[in-house]
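User: I'm putting together notes for a lab meeting next week and I want to include a structural view of one of the chains we've been expressing. I don't have a solved structure, so I'd like a prediction I can at least talk through. The sequence is below, exactly as it appears in our construct file.
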Amino acid sequence: MTAAPVADGVTGARTLTVRYAGGGARRGPVTMGQANMIRCILRDEPDSINIHDVWPVPDGTAMDAALTALAELAARHEALRTTFPYEEGGAAPAEQVVAPAGSFTVTVLDHDALPEDPDAYAEAVARSARDTRFRLDLDFPLRLRIIAHAGRPVRVALAASHAVTDGSALGILRDEWLALLAGEPLPPVTVTPLDLAAEENTPAGRRKSADSLAHWEGILRTGPQAMFAEDGAAGTETDTPGLTLRSARGGRALAAAARRTGALPGTVLLTAWCVLTAHRAGQSVCVAAVPTSNRFRPRLARSVSTLSQDALLGLDVRAPSFDALLAKAWGAAMNAYRHSRFDALALWELIGRVTTERGSQFARDAVFNDISALPSTLAGATARDAHTPELELAWGETQSLPTRLLTFVYQTEPVLRLATWADPVLFPRTAAEELATGLVRLLEAVAEADVPLDAPGPLTEVTGVRPVERGPEWTRVDGCWVSPAAVSAALTEALRGRPAEVVVEGADGDESGRRLVAYIGADERTWPDGALTPEAAHTALMAVLPGRPGVLAPHRYVFVEGPPRHPAAARRILSEGTGRSREMPHDHR
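Assistant: Thanks for the context. Below is the predicted structure for the 589-residue chain, given as structure tokens.
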């Protein structure tokens, strides 16, 4: 366990036990969102999957009042009284149990003098509390630290289990915490996790999940396997520093662009971000995860639960102008939002099946999370002071992330405030700053007039962001950027050093006719489990694909006698085949 940072002037730390009661005992199946996050909790490191927040404490609040308010939150929300029966090493829990009463502990860090920046200190304390795993079957889902000054609480720093809360749920709890301390009434609880699970298990709920899977399958089969398939892109996680943008210019431009186009500000911002992301990546389609979509349903807007499931957006950005793209972006976003509730285990089975058939590895490269219309969430999102800079960039801490571009939008007016984490190999600091300022410049241009998109030049001139330069060894096949040389190297590695050469065959100018063909030298065609067949070669290659976004499996595997040099006409073909369980349809985008 990582010790919490303790500032100079601390007089002591003590642990208090707080008891709560007031709810009924209930049990039932987990929700789709819970199942999704439990899968991540069992797989990922705690500091990357746990979440945190910092809550203010009004001046004059007594310690007893603070502890009482925390107990009232636990009694009010079933999610905070929920555990998941689970045996270490067993199957992921499929049931949740709600306790009618119980207790939790609070660590009080008392100081005779607070640090100069108490908010930054509280943020560090909260972040450090993320480092320890929550036991799904036992632990209270909030790990609470109260920072006190001479016995009086001044901040609550906490980490939370993602199995029962997400960032928006913590924002709701923060609002209710302040309301309780002010003596204000709280609205009725609209929906509990068990209510949501029951709804999801109805015939209508199961149909909605099936429809969502079909939506995902369409994008997985035809969209780019990775947004950032380019030189330098490697690995499945990146250590990425955060860059925060605060811009009054951006806020004014977004409002003006929304007025000019008649579109919602959120849709304008999403469209601009997609255009810029696809422009930089050299892609004609922007495939991005949009995680907060479920919160925009009124019934779930103030649900204290984890609703973290991706809406998968596939937006074809080929349009004559920004306004033309904006007209179809709203529909594409709504389509993604409608299909963002699904059985997470079924989704991952689908991803495994479809990508094996396609010969690709789906990369969740781009994530856009607009929480500006939701309750205030992470403490890191709060402004440091009341000033409104025209354009300010600030670098923050590094995080290990399974994405290459992640943007959180915290505020859109009067200041545009967002944070971006961009893979530093692909986006050195200058390039990351250009991406953030380029978004503001694009919004300013859209606020004035329609912006042409039918060529990359005007967009580069407007934003200052240049498309990635790929060498001649890169080509587009099946809707994806591919390096045949990288495919050859990966296949040779997968076949334990057996030489392979991968070439592009088919129509030179027509992407839909291009096919990757692997020629494999097969003088000794034995394999540990039998003959080295196209199916065995394909299976071996699929095992090494993660972290190689420029690699797509060949459409055909051709085993030739002698060295695998092209053309194969000069070689005796020993066997050939697709290696896939089914042929994939051509991508014509």
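A couple of points you could mention at the meeting. Residues 203-222 form the longest helix (20 residues). The chain is about 35% helix and 25% strand.

User: Perfect, that's what I needed.
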